Amino acid sequence: MDHVDDISLGLDLQGGFEVLYEVQPLDGEEGTEINRELLTDTVSALNARIDVLGVSEPSINIEGDDRIRVQLAGVEDQEQARDLLSTQARLEFRDTDDELKMDGSDLVEGGARQNFREQTNEPIVTVTVDDANLFGEITEEISQRPFPDNRLVIWLDYEEGDSYEEEMQREDSKIVSAPSVDERIQSRDVMITGDFTQESAADLAGILNAGALPVELEELQLNSVGAQLGEQSMELAVYAGFIGIALIFGYMLLYYRFMGMIAVLTLSAYIYLVLVIFNWLNAVLTLPGIAALILGVGMAVDANIITFERIKDELRYGRSVMSAFKAGSRRSLSTILDANITTILAAGVLFYFGTSAVQGFAVMLIVSILTSFVTAVFGARLLLGLWVNSRALNRKQKLFGVKEREIREL
Questions:
Q1: 46 vs 71, 87, 214, 216, CA distance in Å?
Q2: Coil/strand/helix, residue 107
Q3: Which parts of the sequence belong to the SecDF P1 head subdomain domain (predicted)?
Q4: Which of 14, 47, 137, 253 gets the most CB atoms within 10 Å of its CB?
Q5: 69: CATH
Q6: Cβ distance 70 to 21 under 8 Å?
Q7: How is residue 225 annotated by DSSP?
Q8: Would residue 329 be called left, alpha or beta, if left means φ above 0 and alpha means ψ between -120 and 50 degrees?
């Protein structure tokens, strides 16, 4: 059962959020073509940022020519996650006149880390610069300015038109910190202080190490599901599934008697195998996936019903149990194949053209249909065939749901 317990749940079953982004060129690079390579690079950058969140089984898909859909299940702080995904992470060092002194290209790649200030033990972020002399020259020049202009302003995602004076007045400022510089600092390690918590400092270090996004992301659509709502959806879906499957099992036992019992056994094995295969595929189970699983049970039952009805027809014509089983199984196979192949083709079209939720439904449906051939078709026939060949069912047409008055003499 471990394989089934390890199945990853989608955001609609455990909470989380889904956001659709439109990819746009960076400011000043309007002529940049949004091509497949640039989209792939953006997906890689987003994956690196998601690693900072510690989210398992994220789903990031390219849609169309300029859109990316991100699904993160199990995220508790959704605002933090959205900010972390969409921020450009362009770190720049400017003076109070907004003149650029140093930017991310002057930093050592992967050199950001969360730390603590020695005197106060407050969380800080440290970054490593490539050239200590460059940083020394910058700090020396700024230190000679009168207060309060002797500040080295550290920006995150500075845009043309932004200004130090206006940004300092804003509550949600792009300025990470603006320390005063009183002397030349000849060091490769730059300390960034601010109103950090340990978590926010670690997040900033993480996105700086992940690197700046090569594009701008505009949020087009957001679908958010709370953890409690996801849990309720899971409970209701499982409850509905149990009721639906129980009704199917009850009908099969009541109407097909012994053959119905064979169907119940093989269908139980079918449900377990579908979930195991789904886990092996590292797929994420969603509400549409559960719907596809229940629909697959119906498809598998349909295969059994076609076979059982053919067998009952043969028994009504007065054939022996052995000959009725062989003739019924042979005549039903082509009908079952036709029905399932057409459904697989339809599911394939849904997977190719559909979005993530529709694709999850299509994958579960295809897995369900293929598995039903192993259990509901061949498994049921194997078990029933063993009983028929043992001759324990000879002249016991009632066990097949056929009454004596329905049997015609040959």
A1: 11, 10, 10, 12
A2: strand
A3: 102-215
A4: 14
A5: 3.30.70.3400
A6: yes
A7: E
A8: alpha
The two tokens of residue 302 are 């349909």
* Domain of residue 3, residue span: 1-88+213-225
3-state SS class at 159: coil
pLDDT tens-digit readout, 271-282: 888 888 877 876
Name the helix (H) or strand (E) containing 205: helix 198-210
Answer with the residue of higher pLDDT: 60 or 233.
60
Say whether pLDDT at 383 is over 60: yes
Helix axis angle, 287-316 relative to 227-280, nearest 10°?
50
Residues 79 and 107 in one domain: no
3-state secondary structure of 32: coil
Answer yes or no: do 203 and 253 share one domain: no
The verdict on 119 and 207 lying in the same domain is yes
Same domain, 127 and 271: no
H-assigned helices in 28-91: 36-53, 78-86
Task: Give the number of domains in the chain.
Answer: 3
**Phi-psi sector, 105: left (phi>0), alpha (psi -120 to 50), beta:** alpha
Same domain (yes/no): 74, 100: no
How far is CA 167 from each of CA 77, 139, 173, 253, rounded to the nearest angstrom?
26, 22, 6, 73
The residue ranking higher by pLDDT, 18 or 51, is 18
Instruction: Find all residues with CB under 8 Å of 179, minimum gap 6, and list them.
Output: 151, 152, 154, 193
Measured between alpha carbons, how far is 271 from 262 in angstroms, rounded to an integer? Answer: 15
Query: Does residue 350 share a domain with residue 248?
Result: yes
Whether the Cβ atoms of residue 56 and residue 178 lie closer than 8 Å to each other: no
Residue closest to 373 by CA, chosen among 331, 333, 406, 330: 333
Choice between 77 and 275, residue whose per-residue pLDDT is larger: 275
Per DSSP bridges, beta strands 153-156 and 216-225 are: unpaired
